[in-house]
Amino acid sequence: MEIILNTVRKIDNDQAKELSFGDEESLKEILAVAFFNKEDYDNLSLNKTKSNIKMTSQFGSVILKPEKQEKLPQGIVCMPVSIWANQLTGIIDNELIYKNIKVKVEVTGDHILNFNDMIKSIKKNKME
């Protein structure tokens, strides 16, 4: 399924706040998530399985936990600004692209990287 991604900053999802009050696992639980409209969620058959999703943009890909969000319009997926979201954003003509990003969404059995593993993956990709 192709859909449009918008990253959002939510006060209760701030990374600094979460690291202050939580740990690496709670950081992943709160920020490595994608919010879908009910119809899009159902179209991916996520209501029948507890699978993760893989989102891929022209800038990269990431594994996330899908959640329903009743107030989102169909065709839009939102996720908190985070290291996970940064895998899907990029720069074009010296402009940061973090809204209205075309992404491909697919159901996967792959696991979500925790914060430290995400950092290691980024460093590894920079070395290649």
In terms of DSSP E residues, the strand content is 25-35%
Rg from Cα: 14 Å
Helix run count: 4
Give the total of beta strands. Answer: 8
- For the record, what CATH class applies? Mainly Beta
The helix-and-strand class reads alpha+beta
Level of helix content?
25-40%
What order do the SSEs take from the amino end to the carboxyl end, as H and E? EHHEHEEEEEEH
Total discrete domains: 1
Q: What is the correct CATH architecture? A: Beta Barrel
Distance between termini?
A: 30 Å
What spatial order of strands do you see in the largest sheet?
1-5-2-4-3-8
Q: Which fold name is given in CATH as the topology?
A: Barwin-like endoglucanases
- Low-pLDDT stretches are none
Shape: globular
**Main sheet: strands, sense, barrel:** 6 strands, mixed, barrel
Task: Give the rounded overall mean pLDDT.
Answer: 89
Give a description of the structure:
The protein has 4 helices and 8 strands, in the order βααβαββββββα. With 128 residues, it is an alpha+beta fold. It has one domain (2-127): Beta Barrel (Barwin-like endoglucanases), CATH 2.40.40. A 6-stranded mixed barrel has the order 1-5-2-4-3-8. Strands 6-7 form a two-stranded antiparallel ribbon. A hairpin with a 4-residue loop joins β3 and β4 (61-68).
Detail the topology: elements first, then pairings.
Elements: E1 2-8, H1 15-21, H2 24-31, E2 33-36, H3 38-43, E3 52-56, E4 61-68, E5 76-80, E6 90-92, E7 95-97, E8 101-108, H4 115-127
Parallel strand pairs: 1-5, 2-4
Antiparallel strand pairs: 1-8, 2-5, 3-4, 3-8, 6-7
